[in-house]
Amino acid sequence: MPHNGVIIVHVGAGYHSQSKVSEYRKACSDALLKAVQLLRAGVEAAAVAAEAISVLEAAACTNAGRGSNLTLDGTVECDAGLMVDRGAGGRFAGVGAAPRLAHPVRVALRMLEVQQRGLSLGREPPNLLVGEGAVRWAEAQSLPVSPASHLVTPEAQRRYDKYRRSLDEVDRERTADRKRPRLEAADETDSELRDTVGAVVLDCSGHIAAASSSGGIMLKHPGRVGQAAVFGCGCWADAAATTGRYGVGVSTSGTGEQLVMSCLARRVAAEISRSEHAIQGLQLGLKRGFLGSHYVPPSSQRLAGAIALRHDPGLGAVDVSWGHCTASFVLGYMAANSDSPQTLCSRLPPEGTPGATVLSQAVSIRCGPCAEHEPRDRPASGAEWAAGGADGEQGAPGL
Known about the structure:
With 399 residues, the protein is an alpha+beta fold. Helices cover 30% and strands 24% of the residues.
């Protein structure tokens, strides 16, 4: 069924102070408006997703691209990943621990293009490039490479100095029988440090692309690669022809090492593709695939979030959904034939516990020429949507 396309984006699952929420929502809105402009022009999903991520990478409030968290050495190293469904080739490209790249997602997009064209002499095109190798490849493709100092903003430097002093103090005071505090896990939910950005796009041809980009956790070891660059962990996209009925795209956020060990994007997509309702699949993916994973260390506080898009080409319907077990999650979505983007900051209820409680929500969008946003199970009276309990499903709140 012809339609104009849909996009959902996020700027991280973690903790977002109320004073900064408007800035996060503005970043989502800017990315959505840019993406919808491209969708209306008939641009394919992968390029739209990459451009939406590029807008988020350039935003001052996000931990991606310029302004990202700094490594132990005080430098920026970024991760990004981009995947298209099998109907569009089923390709994935990742960039990990890459210095001097303000827009690593654009390098991933070019990698997808090279994979489609192929290399001379039958060589296999790369699907993952890391470190200086990724930078050299970008230069060979005539993609922009920035001076290292250009990616370090005053705010990022301030955060680095603050946490580096704390780390040095801990090291000085550490005794033989005292365990070193896990600063990185605590930092993951700090509103100052923020998190991964992501996007999932359905284009007018019915193809899906998903993307993720991140500057990683503060004071990470140089060379550390997070979930954004790892196949099946940061993003996932698959076509209806391969899932049996639905096209599905997912982008994740949270503690990178945990998302890698749980292969969360792929797990959530699998649950959504076989569930009667998208929101049920998302809930199951986060509960069983993440909180219940045997591969995530039990001593860790488990922190994750995911956005998802499910397309039923037979009915011309799209469900956009999101869920998280962090304190909050900032995101937005928009249909290409809509007048304005919808953005929100989803928060756990007061009785919820980060790392244990999953909150999920969903909205249905009709993909015909006269598409309208239709919140799932909205009361006819227009009353506020009722929460389903600490671990229950919800419809979208008033936006």
